[in-house]
Amino acid sequence: MNKIVSAALSILHYDRNSYIFNQMATIEECRSYKNAPGVTWINMDGIGDLDVVRSLGTIFGLHDLTIQDITNTEHRVKQEDFGNYLVVILKMLTFNPVDKTIDTEQLSLAFGANFVITFQERPGDFFGPLREEIKISDSIVRKMGSDYLTCRIIDVVVDNYFGTVEKFGEEIEDKEEELVSNPSRETLNSVLHIKKQMMRLRQYVWPVREILSELGKKESVLIKAETIAYFRDVYDRIFEAMDLIEMTREMVAGLIDIYLSSMSNKTNEVMKVLTVVATIFIPLTFVVGLYGMNFKFMPELESPYGYPAILLFMLAVAVGMLVYFHKKKWI
Description:
- By secondary structure, this protein is of the alpha+beta class.
- The chain has two domains: 8-261, Beta Polymerase, domain 2 (2-Layer Sandwich); 266-327, Up-down Bundle (Methane Monooxygenase Hydroxylase, Chain G, domain 1).
- Helices cover 58% and strands 16% of the residues.
- The protein contains nine helices and seven strands.
- It has a seven-stranded mixed β-sheet, sandwiched between helices.
- A hairpin with a 3-residue loop joins strand 6 (101-111) and strand 7.
- Helix 6 packs parallel to helix 8 and helix 8 (225-290) packs antiparallel against helix 9 (306-327).
- The longest helix has 66 residues, at 225-290.
- The radius of gyration is 35 Å and the shape is rod-shaped.
């Protein structure tokens, strides 16, 4: 269960000619930007304070259902149009190097004509480079509206999917070396763990395709015609991410095949040794059995050299068979 973090607000306001960033904002400061010209990006880290979430919702006219979706961190990925604003709920994914799992964080995004509000479960995000880009006066984002900023935020989240998948790809390479050199049950369990995580990753990423498809053809006054092309570009990116996930899942399946092949080879080696030993003892067992019949009139029974002669004969047979197997490259 995710730890509840107290709310922290920040305001980033910009237009073509100005840029303001307030990292420690208050509700009243957020209210003052409600009808401000340009674009206002309000970010809330930590959604444990429901009063703050509701206050932001009241200021910017968010529906009660939107507030419920924002505060429900187990909500599925989706987008919804409320007329005067749109809501997009995504999962930000990071690779946990300690237990080799996916850490998830819900990102709820609401954007209207002149504002974008993002709600994150806890402090820290991937949007630092985007904020730095907004500082540049002649950057594209400074010339566009809130719809473009929304597109860029989603693009950053999608880009991080690639990094998460690549981390699992590195894990798979390490496991492949282990399976080839020393296959074990523990390694197989770790491979199956990676397979499970890749299924979770696909579960989070696949619905984003539908969201971007809708936004890319959205007939909404909030999405300008020149921004649709950017949404479609991110739509193409999510397909690339899905292709990478599917390729990684195939690599995991290949690791399982490698494990089964390695174990089969190990079994075959053991069986080959046992077969050679059994084959060598077949004629020796015949000789021992023949002289164990205890008939009165048998050759060499009365000879003082009979016993050592039979032993030498049996040794010669065993050595001869080993030489023969070696020449045939069976051992």
